[in-house]
Specification:
This protein is an all-alpha fold. It has one domain. The chain contains three helices and no strands. Helix 1 packs antiparallel against helix 2. The longest helix has 40 residues.
C-alpha cells in the first residue's frame, strides 16, 4: 500500500474520497453512468477549493478598494486629533 509522504500535510477526507472513487471505478467497469457519477462526486472538493480561492481573491480586491477609499476620505488627516 502507498503511504503518505512524511512531513506533508493532507486533507484526509479528500484523500479518502479520491481513493473510494478510484476503487468504485474499478469495481463498476463498463457502467459508464456510474463511472461518470463517481467522477462528479470526486470533483466536488476540487470545485469547492476553486470557489474558496476565488472568494479569497475577491475579498482581497474589495479590501484593497476599501483601503484606497479610506486613504482619500480625509480620515488620515483627522485620525490623531485630540477631540
Amino acid at each position: 500500500m502507498p503511504t503518505a509522504e512524511q512531513g506533508s500535510q493532507y486533507h484526509w477526507p479528500s484523500a479518502g474520497n479520491a481513493a473510494l472513487a478510484e476503487v468504485l471505478r474499478n469495481l463498476f467497469t463498463g457502467k459508464q453512468n456510474s463511472i461518470a457519477a463517481f467522477g462528479n462526486l470526486e470533483a466536488q472538493p476540487r470545485e469547492l477549493v476553486r470557489k474558496l480561492g476565488q472568494g479569497v481573491d475577491l475579498g482581497h480586491t474589495v479590501g484593497d478598494a476599501v483601503a484606497a477609499w479610506i486613504a482619500g476620505d480625509g480620515f488620515a488627516q483627522l485620525n490623531n486629533y485630540p477631540y
